[in-house]
Structures are given as structure tokens and as C-alpha cells.
Amino acid sequence: MSTSTHLTPPVVMGEIMSRADEVRAIVRAHHGTGKIAVFGSQVTGKATKESDIDLLVEFGEGTSLLDVVAAEAELSELFGRPVDIMSFRASGYAADHARRQAVLLV
Prior knowledge:
This protein is an alpha+beta fold. It is built from five helices and four strands, in the order H-H-E-H-E-H-E-H-E. The protein has one domain (9-104): Beta Polymerase, domain 2. Helix 2 (20-29) packs antiparallel against helix 4. The longest helix has 15 residues, at 65-79.
């Protein structure tokens, strides 16, 4: 019997969505506006047990890299897996791709 490391996206997304208030509180504590979206393998259905959680976050003016790193650390602790944050204001192909596949945290 083989053991799959593939996670069912609705389960992972369900956990992320069910903790939306906690996620928003952490992001707002680090100058986020509260606009947050999930993108990457958690959305596309390619997540494994080792997959991180990719978030698009809108930050207010004056947000430092330290704020972003601190938010990533707190969110990683919350979910028990790495969390990577990209700003909604980021530019380039990767940012455009992330925005196209993003699912807003509701």
C-alpha cells in the first residue's frame, strides 16, 4: 500500500479559511490592511505535506521587511508549516501569476 503525501486542497484551504480572523489579526499587527489572499500549491491542488502556504498581503505605507518577516514567522507557527508572504504591490511575472490564481481570504 503506497502512502500519498498529497493533501486534498479543500481540507488545507478549509483550515486556512477557518483561521481567517487569526491570520488577519497577525497581519494587521504588522501593518497589513487586512486584504489577504492564498495562492500557489494550496490553491492549485498540488500541495503536499511539506508544502508551504503562500499569501498575498496588502501592507500599509511604512511597512518594513522586518514586519513582513515577523508576520511570516507568526503565521508559520500558527499553521505548523512555512508561510511565505508576497505583497499585492509586488511587480513582475511571479506577482502577476500569483494575483491571477489568488483566492481571497473571506
